[in-house]
Write a structure and sequence with these properties.
Blueprint (H helix, E strand, L loop, with lengths): L6 E6 L3 E8 L2 E9 L3 H13 L7 E6 L2 H14 L4 E3 L9 E2 L9 H14 L3 E6 L2 E7 L4 E9 L1 H10 L21 H28 L4 E5 L3 H5 L7 E2 L3 H19 L1
Parallel strand pairs: 1-4, 4-5, 6-9, 7-10, 10-11
Antiparallel strand pairs: 1-2, 2-3, 7-8, 8-9
Length: 260
């Protein structure tokens, strides 16, 4: 894709929203917000969009939080003269799927899968550690088979606090490098941290057994580095995997349109 096809990309998650401009086959000006910071998100989006030095630059949005996505989309539509492209509605995700017919799969998982497949053309497990932790499988033919969804680290900690009378409110962080949690907060962090890492390893073994070979395993998401930096199972941590999936899907949609 050339700079003639530069665009603004926005990913709206349940907790975090990220923006970046796609120029010359790479993402630039990446920024990260709480999804609730709608005004700040729209202000920066407008600034980045106006600074794209191409005729009629596009805005491409992928929203896991549909309510926040609709609000941000409406505000941007009111203040720009361009159509917003919605991943999954206006632009299909460039990945094959083998799922039950009634399944509603988040665009974030599909975009991760599209990017993972494009990078290596190999069977891959993608771990996305954010508000939830997803562990998904793409086979050696480039087909997304789904996977597993579990509560994310902070969600687990919050549930322990709100669901009991004694456990404290704890922000997620890497626990101390000790075998035992010596206080309540450290015990909670140990349980969440080791629990997620153990789940990912167990699911990876399960997927490999079903597939008949061990796929490569990569990770993304806001907590990926904290959880998996020293985990030898994870071959690569790619923070902008979802953005890469957007670029691939836009490029694929444009090539289909040109061939039509």
């Amino acid at each position: 894709m050339s700079t003639d096809h530069a665009f603004l990309a926005i990913t709206i998650g349940n907790s975090r929203t990220r923006l970046a401009t796609f120029i010359g086959d790479e993402f630039q000006n990446q920024a990260d917000f709480n999804t609730s910071d709608t005004t700040e998100i729209v202000e920066l989006a407008l600034k980045l969009w106006k600074n794209l030095e191409v005729e009629s630059p596009q805005i491409v949005m992928a929203a896991s939080d549909e309510i926040a996505g609709e609000a941000i989309s409406a505000m941007l539509s009111d203040q720009t003269s361009t159509q917003l492209w919605q991943i999954g509605k206006d632009i299909p995700v460039a990945i094959g799927q083998h799922l039950d017919p009634e399944t509603i799969t988040g665009t974030d998982r599909l975009l991760n899968a599209a990017a993972a497949w494009e990078m290596s053309k190999l069977a891959t497990i993608v771990v996305d550690a954010g508000t939830c932790v997803t562990v998904d499988f793409i086979d050696g033919e480039g087909t997304f088979h789904g996977g597993a969804i579990a509560p994310g680290a902070q969600m687990q900690l919050t549930a322990m606090h709100t669901g009991t009378t004694a456990l404290p409110e704890v922000d997620f962080d890497k626990p101390l490098k000790e075998a035992f949690g010596k206080n309540t907060a450290q015990a909670m962090l140990q349980g969440v941290y080791q629990g997620i890492r153990g789940m990912v390893r167990q699911l990876s073994e399960q997927y490999a057994s079903r597939y008949g070979a061990y796929p490569r395993v990569i990770a993304t998401g806001g907590n990926a580095l904290m959880l998996f930096e020293d985990e030898d199972l994870i071959e690569q941590i790619i923070p902008d995997l979802q953005f890469q999936g957007i670029a691939i899907s836009v490029k694929h949609a444009m090539s289909v349109e040109e061939d039509a």
